[in-house]
Amino acid sequence: MLAYLFRRLFAAAVMLVVIIMVVFGIFFLVPKWAGVDIASSFVGKQADPAAVEAVRQKLGLSDPIYSQVWEFFKGIFAGRTYAGGGDVTHCAAPCFGYSFRSEQAIWPVLTDRFPVTLALALGAAVLWLVLGMAAGVLSALKRGSFWDRGAMVVALAGVSLPVYFTGMASLAVFAFGLDWLDARYVPLTDSFTGWFGGLILPWITLAFLYAAMYARITRATMLEILGEDYIRTARAKGLREQTVIGKHAMRSTMTPILTMLGMDLGALIGGAILTETTFNLPGLGQAVLNAIKNQDLPVILGVTLITSLAVLIANLVVDVLYAVIDPRVRLA
Amino acid sequence: MSDKADDKAVNIPAQSEGTVITKGDAAPGETLLKVTGLQKHFPIKKGLLQRQVGAVRAVDGLDFEVKSGETLGVVGESGCGKSTMGRLITRLLEPTAGTVEFEGTDITHLGVGGMRPLRRDMQMIFQDPYSSLNPRHTIGTIVSAPFRLQGVEPEGGVKKEVQRLLSVVGLSPEHYNRYPHEFSGGQRQRIGIARALALSPKLVVADEPVSALDVSIQAQVVNLLDDLQRELGLTYVIIAHDLSVVRHVSDRIAVMYLGKIVELADREQLYKSPMHPYTKALLSAVPIPDPARRGAKSERILLKGDVPSPISPPAGCRFHTRCWKATEICRTTEPPLAELRPGQQVACHHPENFADQAPQDVVLLSDAKEAAELVSEEALAASAETSAAVAAEVESGGPDTEASKDGAAKTAPGAAEDGAAKTAPEAAEGTAEEK
Amino acid sequence: MTDLSKSGAAVGEPTGTSPAPTAFLEVRDLKVHFPTDDGLVKSVDGLTFQLEKGKTLGIVGESGSGKSVTSLGIMGLHTAGQYGKRKAQISGEIWLDGTELLSADPEEVRKLRGRQMAMIFQDPLSALHPYYTIGQQIVEAYRIHHPVDKKTARRRAVEMLDRVGIPQPDKRVDSYPHEFSGGMRQRAMIAMSLVNNPELLIADEPTTALDVTVQAQILDLIRDLQKEFGSAVIVITHDLGVVAELADDLLVMYGGRCIERGPAEKVFYEPRHPYTWGLLGSMPRLDRDQQERLIPVKGSPPSLINIPSGCAFNPRCPYADVPKDNVTRTVRPELTEIGSKHWAACHMTQEQRERIWTEEIAPKL
Predict the structure, then answer these.
(1) Which H or E run includes C169?
(2) Which of A52, A65, B172, B422 has the largest count of CB atoms under 10 Å?
(3) Is the Cα torsion angle A291, A293, A294, A296 positive or negative in sign?
(4) B15, B218, B287 ranked by CB distance to C244: nearest
(5) Which domains, from first to last, does chain A contain?
(6) Would you kindly state where each structural domain of chain B is located, as residue ranges?
(7) Do A327 and C131 touch (CB under 8 A)?
(8) Is A249 helix (H, G, I), strand (E, B) or coil?
């Protein structure tokens, strides 16, 4: 088990380096090939040539790509000083880049906004896992019943309705129509109930999409597992039906769900951007959307890196959970 | 449909034992397939760099020949490499070492293109009639596939030829446009056979052709294979785990254990007087459908434990960890596959039913003593007796008399205290009488 | 259904059913039908037999003959945990030690499962849960029927593993099924099914997934354990060799019905049904001199949705025209006693069958 953990950790570290290089390549190398001046995109199209030249010097954009990557890496651990065009900008470690557009370091922006996205994502994940699996198991056990069909119709709706639609609809009904909730984001440090109240609709909106998918997967997996020989063995031992389902069948059903969870946590950021926009949450998604609008490259780079890191960690956790559930995985 | 075919099959006059054997002689000395030193190791790779940390030695040095018109049966337990062997000789797998010669041509390293013309002469029948037929294709498409692949236009057209093949295997020509799911297991296996026969191959390799079928259907397919061989002069290599089926269909039989052939002999000899202890154990393990012999433990040799891993097979004789006759030499020296009796090759230092090959080595390994506890005393005694008797025979006839005789007399006590006491004098008597 | 006390033979007569039997296990006119979109699948269609403690009954038949469905029916596994599906229709009576199982409270039957009746399945790899250790699975089976702590149950598990011949049982108890070889897994499975000393053991194709040398080990083990525990055993298999090794009595099934039943010697040496002849003739045998040709049964097993009218075997029977008036195709033959404890269901007269067997079939086997 320990060896397995080390292997996974090592693989994750390797993966992280690869991601940074790939992201770097996409942001710095590809524009170069395409003949786009990167420096200008760091300052904005209408910037004067002097400012562009200053950025070019500050970032060492004329240097070979590997030295740029190296500088970036070094910045993460040691901080970085940008000098050029007559002025000096310091970016303290961990330096994930500097936005010359908004004249601020990226890292504080990320640390500011990351918790919001994390809260949104984790809260939604818990919600969709619980709802999705519960609905899936119930549907499987009552296959063909009214409940099963109803749940699957709702699930189909959940899969097919876009987040902004369900988001808008829930806002219209619960926040503005019924006035049950205040649809403003309040930081957790200010007030728990305010924070919770502000996030509950985003959670439900985001979770609805995934819960639907998870319900369908859970139902299908559960039905398959219930046909397994070892479930018959469990019954032949004289186990109570709740043990057969709750222990033997559930543990097996977890495996494909975990696999899916690992992948979905990566794809989640897309859903989160839409949700954050719909609910006006100050998260990474919103930051990235603004950055794209303003062509603020360093922010996009920083957000990409931080989310890759989050996905990597999430997958590491999933891998470990996987091994906990299925002993055969530990050997592989 | 199939009913008709069965009637037809039953009505073919029974052939006598003699003709079955002469069938092999029809093309005397003509070797169709020759395998030398055949090996297949599947590498085990580990880590990020996928470096090789070991190998599954699935097939580890096989030498045998298949003569035109005969049936070679290959038996062994799961993991012995028999299926890998089948795929190697039909070149569905690339051997790690050794050569495969088909009609005198070395086909060991022929590429896909080089093999194509040979695919006509060499066909395979697979175990599972459910997964080996594409469910989306009609029977006509499936059986005519070989014609398309080889670009052959049979006389009278593909459809007519396919319908003829269907009737040969006992299906109705009207089945041409049906799909596999409309057929039962036995009928599907017939379809697989029809496909294999399409290009009138010389060699048919059948991997567990009947093991997925019900008993009554098994018999239909076994009879069909028999009839086809007689009518078309086919040569078979039949790989199976069922010793009764293999005995029924084969002229010669190879017994495999952990990637090696431990015994290769004519059918009658192998079943009447097996020489390798593993063969003997294997034969004795087959449950006999006769309640009177229930629990006839005296005849049964139970092997202890499981087959060792083919990743690190035991040194020396691979069977020594489970053999009740194993001595030091078995642990250190690998016995060669040698023809001890005409038509019977065996790889063993201390064969059953024959003179001991390493008579100087008499001290049993501790493993062997444990293994012997599972073998009834009657079996041990009987074995010692026959060995001694053969030794005596050899002594009276052959020149290296002393060694053999001493060997038999000495090993007997090692094998079974009780039996030895009885047998040694008997052996001596036998010798005296002979002289 | 009336309350049934568990005091054995002296049980009062439940309303609507015949008197409680004296045999340890008695199955009467068992029918298991499954409704499907294509029609009613009559997997078992009227099966009757008895079994005493310490005896072994072999149920033989080809795939789809209803032999496995019978065993699951006795265990009550057609009704337990069948969610939302169209439920199996089960009728008849199953008396186990004086209790009628089909009319009993499902919770009572659950308590009997694993304790009084246990089962060994065909493929031990798929029949054991891959995520739990062998020990955990045996402990679970023990504790559901015995209120003991985990330690005691674990000791019991180790003891059972030792009994079925698993080396170093105190270590192997913590292994997972995938760490065992096929033979070891089946031993573990047997240990698990015997952990509560069941009085009835059902082995469904216990050795089909195993190699022949391992099969010999397992058959030996089952025989020894039966002697030791004195349980009643039902062995379900398609392999007549396995049955001959273990069974005292034999029941041959075809198309969901019993077509011949009797002491093993009778059924092997004086079979009185053409299908039994067919099974015997289909088998290549190691104990006989080489047969020239096998004598297969023509055609394929019947569809259980559309069982042939009359005798289910009539389309495949070479002697279907021996009885007069086409009776084989119109009237279903009843199981009739043709000798001491020997039953067969065939329209041919006893004399006809005896003659065919001795003159036509036996010499060719």
Answers:
(1) helix C169-172
(2) A52
(3) positive
(4) B287
(5) 24-95 (no CATH), 115-331 (1.10.3720.10)
(6) 2-45+53-255, 278-286+295-434
(7) yes
(8) helix
Backbone angles phi, psi at B54, to 5 degrees: 175, -170
The pair of structure tokens assigned to A195 is 């924070």
Residue with tokens 């890759």, as numbered in its chain: A308
Based on its alpha-carbon atoms, the radius of gyration of chain C, rounded to whole angstroms, reads 21
Q: Are C206 and C218 in contact (CB under 8 A)?
A: yes
Antiparallel, parallel or unpaired: β C39-51 and C56-60: unpaired
CATH annotation of B2-45+53-255: 3.40.50.300
Task: Report helix, strand or coil for B235.
Answer: strand
Residue B310 pLDDT > 70: yes
Q: What is the pLDDT of residue B304?
A: 81
The strand pair at B344-346 and B338-341 is best described as antiparallel
DSSP helix/strand/coil, C200:
strand
DSSP code of residue C301: P
Neighboring chains of B (3 or more beta-carbon pairs < 8 A): C
- Residue B426 pLDDT > 50, yes or no? no
pLDDT: is C341 or C19 the higher one? C341
- Judged against a pLDDT cut of 80, whether residue B211 lies above it is answered with yes
Q: In a 10 Å sphere around its CB, with 0-12 CB exposed, 13-18 middle and 19+ buried, how is residue C43 labelled? A: buried
What are the tens digits of pLDDT across the range C32-86? 999 888 889 999 999 999 999 999 999 999 888 889 899 999 999 887 666 666 7
Tokens 């080996």 correspond to: B132
Domain segments of chain C as ranges: 126-197, 271-364
B226 touches chain C (CB under 8 A): yes
Structure confidence by residue, pLDDT tens digits, C234-271: 999 999 999 998 999 999 999 999 999 999 999 999 99
Average pLDDT over residues B165-177: 87
Residue A271's contacts (CB-CB under 8 Å, 6 or more residues apart) are: A163, A206, A209, A210
Distance from CA of A310 to the nearest CA of C (A): 29
Is the model more confident about B103 or about C9? Answer: B103
Q: At what angle do helices A250-279 and A284-294 cross, to 10 degrees?
A: 50
Counting Cα atoms < 13 Å in the Cβ hemisphere of C142 gives: 24
Q: What span, in angstroms and rounded, lies between the C-alpha atoms of B98 and A252? A: 45
Structure tokens at B334: 């690998």
Chain B CA closest to residue C276: B216
Cis preceding-peptide flag for C106 (omega within 30 of 0): no
State the pairing for strand pair C117-120/C99-100.
Answer: unpaired
**Which residues in C have their CB inside 8 Å of a CB on A?**
72, 75, 77, 80-81, 83-85, 110-115, 118-119, 121, 123, 126-131, 133, 140-141, 144-145, 176, 178, 192-193
Residue B395 — very low, low, confident or very high, per pLDDT cuts 50/70/90? low
When comparing pLDDT for B177 and A85, which is higher? Answer: B177
Q: Residue A221 contacts by C-beta under 8 Å, 6 or more apart in sequence?
A: A136, A252, A253, A256, A257
Which of the listed ranges A185-199, A305-319, B36-50, B271-285 does the model predict with the highest average pLDDT? B271-285
pLDDT digits (tens, 9 = 90+) for C292-328: 788 888 888 888 888 899 999 999 999 999 998 889 9
